[in-house]
Specification:
By secondary structure, the chain is mainly α. The protein has helices at residues 9-18, 28-53, 68-85, 96-117, 133-143, 147-167, 171-183, 189-197, 202-205, 209-240, 244-250, 259-263, 269-287, 311-319; strands at 62-66, 120-123, 128-132. The longest helix has 32 residues, at 209-240.
Length: 322
């Protein structure tokens, strides 16, 4: 069985904070006003998502408006807690400390990089909604977005995630179980070689059929979650955000996938947002907006990997209609 990698999480948090990049210039009054407006946007978004989504969930219990370094430290803590839940043995051996330092540096660099890109995040374990003030301010300035519109739109996306996980309390455990299937996967060298020779690709060949299936299921579920959050924020925006069309155009995510995303489609977040939004729009157009809420009834109701691109197949299987 695979082992959890040794990671110095305290070091990872410090490195994440140090590599979070230069912040946009802002005076103290501007920062205070930004934090206050983001908190108001998060609260308003929670009310509006409840109104337009048709979901029985609830908004995030806690809202944190943070800078990048604070988020990076929190993110490493969330990652540590998630890995601790996996039933994998801990590392051992004389080099454990050195490996922990090396992995801690890498984890911190990764958190620092992600923290420069992220606008918001919902943590289902603690029901906490994070809004990264510097990144929101930076994009707001670059694109000339109307402040109230952009902040409400971003907050609505994250609050939709809060409704998803609270409406489906089984969802987080389901995802963790599928992640664990991938984490404990073991494929022998000869099997990998045989699959590569058959033209399956290196990334695909390094996983067993059960692990590939689990990863595809996770990717399909994450595609639903991100697409549905975009769909709800757009629906809300059509009623409450005058510049929503401009915001959607700015986040159309039409760029071609990177080489890494081609090798590992599960990390292609642009595709998840894009394909998930297309799925939700198609379902809504055929069966109404509330038809999407059925996806959160049980694990069996989640879209299967092949159904993300074929929403009619999902409607037929789950709703008995197309």
């Amino acid at each position: 069985m695979e082992q959890l990698p040794p990671i110095d999480w305290c070091l990872a948090g410090r490195v994440g904070g140090c590599t979070s990049g230069e912040l946009p210039a802002a005076s103290r009054p501007e920062v205070l006003a930004l934090v206050a407006s983001l908190r108001l946007a998060a609260r308003r978004a929670g009310e509006l998502v409840a109104e337009v989504s048709g979901m029985p969930g609830r908004p995030a219990r806690r809202v944190v408006v943070s800078d990048r370094a604070t988020w990076a430290r929190g993110a490493t803590g969330m990652a540590r807690a998630a890995l601790d839940e996996l039933s994998l043995p801990g590392p051992s051996g004389p080099l454990r400390g050195l490996r922990g330092v090396a992995h801690g540096v890498l984890a911190g660099i990764g958190a620092g990089w992600v923290g420069r890109q992220l606008l918001g995040q919902f943590d289902p374990a603690s029901s906490t909604l994070f809004l990264l003030a510097p990144n929101i301010l930076q994009l707001q300035r670059i694109h000339g977005f109307r402040m109230q519109d952009f902040q409400l739109w971003v907050a609505a996306h994250e609050q939709t995630h809060a409704f998803q996980f609270s409406a489906a309390p089984w969802l987080r455990d389901h995802l963790m179980q599928r992640f664990e299937t991938v984490a404990v996967d073991e494929v022998g060298f000869l099997e990998v070689t045989r699959e590569v020779v058959r033209g399956r690709g290196v990334a695909r060949s390094m996983m067993s059929p059960s692990a590939r299936e689990a990863l595809q299921e996770v990717t399909a579920t994450m595609t639903l979650l991100e697409g549905h959050a975009d769909f709800v924020s757009d629906t809300l925006g059509a009623r409450r955000i005058p510049t929503v069309r401009r915001l959607r155009r700015a986040f159309a995510r039409t760029s071609p996938p990177t080489m890494l995303a081609k090798l590992l489609p599960a990390i292609d977040k642009d595709a998840q947002y894009r394909d998930g939004l297309a799925f939700c729009r198609a379902v809504s157009a055929r069966a109404g907006k509330k038809a999407l809420t059925a996806a959160y009834d049980s694990p069996e109701a989640l879209p299967r990997p092949g159904e993300i691109g074929e929403p009619i197949a999902w409607l037929r299987r789950v709703h008995g209609t197309a």
